[in-house]
Amino acid sequence: MAEILIRGAFDPRPLQDKLHDMLARFNVLVAHRRFGKTVYCVNELIESAGKDDLPPEPRFAYIAPFYNQAKDIAWSYLKHFGGMVPGVEFNESELRADFPGGSRIRLYGADNADRLRGLYFDGVILDEYAQMNPRVWSEIIRPALADRGGWAIFIGTPMGRNAFADIYDGAVNGFQLPDGTRKKEPDWRGFMFKASETGIIPPAELQAAARAMTPDQYAQEFECSFDAAIPGTYYASLLASAEQMGRIKPVPWEPGLPVYTAWDLGVNDPTAIWFCQLAYGEPRLIDYYEEAGRGLDYHVSQLRAGHRNEWVYAQHFFPHDIKPKEMSDGISRLDKLKAFGLHPTVLPASSVDDGISQARYIIRKSWFDTTRCGNGLKALRQYRSEWDEKRQVLKPVPLHDWTSHCADAFRYLAVGLGRHLIDRKPLGDPMLSELNRGSMPRFAKGGGGKRYGW
Q1: What's the alpha-carbon Rg for the chain, to the nearest Å?
Q2: 229 domain-assigned
Q3: Has residue 297 been placed in a domain?
Q4: pTM for the full predicted model
Q5: Rounded to an integer, what distance in angstroms lies between the CA atom of residue 235 and that of residue 223?
Q6: How far is CA 231 from its chain centroid?
Q7: How far apart are CA 163 and CA 172, in angstroms?
């Protein structure tokens, strides 16, 4: 019944109708602006919700980068097309549609992805996935589909070489294995629809758009180019140069060098940590860590977790705002970190612009481990200025989104290391000197008798 009603009301374009019959379990749809991605996918959700062979209490989700964005883009479509199904009920406050038989479609935002933990889904649309934190899929949505055998469709327009580019490449060419080879997964399919090929937008309109846009903007928005520069990015071109010069590659930990860390502490947001060694005045970024929903004690413990177990640490850079006492308990985060055995280096207050300038300088000299820093690199590539919709210009401030915590932590690293690198002076190693004086705090390791200092 739902399929008959929706197909009659939706009247899909020929490409959309063909795409419906070609879908696998996991699909990546890269399409130009005005292809009709959202309308198509909302109708896929509605049609799936009306099937007869569903497990008990079916649950489907549409996820946009921001909750308000989900409401603005998809809610009216869901009400319009879903309203064609007799007996459907809509909940405005929860952006939810309840269908006869128990199926439910709900809209969510990836900006509060942790609220999705513990839920299950039979089908999910991830709209504009290029603007989402990659962990939304790997840590939250993919596990939520496991026990129900649920499906997913990633849709969007390219925004540089990020997680959306990676997942499309994996769907088409196979996902990369640890040994460097690729494996094609039969459950994955990738589709790309360029404006020059679909015929949806008249040629005269495309020509007018090309005249009004920069070549990079047109290539990205209408020709689905992952290589077009994202307007307003701070570090993307520098990282592209680093990759071309071979400075993004496997970078091993050097046992003879101490490790420096830089932190951006999140409360409800993720905590981000960069791990760096210095050799001949060049930073080697050997690891990146990001985790949300954990306490300070857990984050500190990650400095000895897994492959970091034998690392010897030098300084830990933190922003100046860890000094004030918190209203809840009257204890500062600085004091809490010290109680957990960490001795932070608190950076002086400085402007974001100055920090970004220092970060750009650092990137020109840095090496990045392609695997352990992979998520951090994706965030740095997409870190960009905020867009002023009213004036149609870039604002002189960074956009606060999922990339911010990673970029802020890297900025603190640059501020902490910058002066020494510019002067080509070796950094002092306060940890080793304190160990020699016997004043460094030490911690027992797992009851094995071995002891080490931070």
Answers
A1: 25
A2: no
A3: yes
A4: 0.69
A5: 23
A6: 18
A7: 14
**Single residue among 166, 194, 212 that ends a domain in this structure:** 212
In a domain, residue 149? The reply is yes
Examine the domain organization and report whether 283 and 180 are in the same domain.
Answer: no
pLDDT digits (tens, 9 = 90+) for 355-382: 999 999 999 999 999 999 999 998 999 8
- 107 and 179, same domain (yes or no): yes
What's the CA gap between 305 and 312, in Å, rounded? 13
Residue type, 304: R
Tell me the CATH number at 114. 3.40.50.300
Q: Which domain holds residue 337?
A: 238-453
221, part of any domain: no
Residues ≥6 apart with Cβ < 8 Å to 340? 296, 297, 300
Between CA 173 and CA 169 the distance in angstroms is 6
3-state secondary structure (DSSP) of residue 86: coil
Q: Is 408 helix (H, G, I), strand (E, B) or coil?
A: helix
d(CA 369, CA 363): 13
For the chain, how many structural domains are there in total?
2
DSSP summary character for residue 89: E
Q: Does 39 share its domain with 166? A: yes
pLDDT, tens only, 265-289: 987 778 999 999 998 889 999 999 9
Dist. CA 274–CA 197, nearest whole Å: 43
The token pair that represents 84 in the structure block: 């064609």
> How far apart, in Å, are the Cα atoms of 42 and each of 46, 48, 91, 96, 113?
6, 10, 16, 13, 20
Q: Residue 119: count other Cβ atoms within 10 Å of its Cβ.
A: 14
